[in-house]
Input
Amino acid sequence: MIESPKFWYQNNSYSKIQSFLLFPLSILWILISFLKKVFIKKYKSKLKVICIGNITVGGTGKTPFAIYTFKFLKKLGYKPVFLTRGYGGLLKGPIEVKDTHKFKEVGDEALLLNKVGPTIVSKNRSHGAKLIENHESDFNIIIMDDGLQNYQLKQDIKFLLIDKNLKFGNKFCIPAGPLREPINQGLLGIDAIVLTGNENKDTDLYNVYNKIIFNPQIKTIKSPKIKNDKLLAFCGLANAIKFYETLKANGFNVMYTKSFPDHYEYKNEDIDKLILEANIQNLKLITTEKDYVKINDNKNIINFLPIEMELDMKDKAVFKPFLQEKLND
Output
């Protein structure tokens, strides 16, 4: 996972110079991406495929929205299944995730998805779809967590997630900027845009793109019993600030924060240091559920904040017929 440099999201002269110097490499990135898109043969599954992704490096809430979509489809009577790359895991698949699997085997996102419903890990998404098709009586919809830049499997519904605060950064492609592909190219074939993040102000994204737009809110499911305690919050996310802001917005007393790289594999010494630091300052530890599944020892003294995405009634009234129309084509 590429860590997000600060200059991607800054507009000062120094940041512009950095982007300019790296721009030739961005041209190479765009060329390679284009060749993949043209020459990789797409597999058309017998089942409907919903892809939930982004065109920027880093987290935009893909997994929470995939989980929300899964639950929404279940209520409508569909039989969905998750299909994920299993980022950070050693297993290439295709393989069904079991409760006995560890983070090192299938990655953190797969473990979270498997808590909600059946999950298949496959580095090659077309192979994963074919495995799911062997159980066609059990499933009729594939939900891809990430994969807008994956050209192995044809997608019937494409959701593009955009962080309301970060948006597209400086609008350059990797490594000069955060984009996985140029904006215009990334918007081709997108069926709907999903705005994520803690920013509640009106965004100009509503007026820029001629797409259906959904605006889910983050809500806590069940707050741990430490709301009035002083906390040391830590996480390994691409956008760690989003987690800390969510804690504060929900009334948690965050005194200190500690951020690790995205998809960070916690070692025992990392956790020991966090526990020691928290004890010295008389603080309680709290992290995300995504980080919690990667911690092996001393889990009983670490709290996590379970969250989920939720559409308001107005968006739900659009979301339901939108899905049904696309899935019945």
Q: What stands out?
A: Residues 13-39 form the longest helix (27 residues). The chain has two domains: 48-217+310-327, 222-305. DSSP finds eleven helices and 14 strands in the chain.
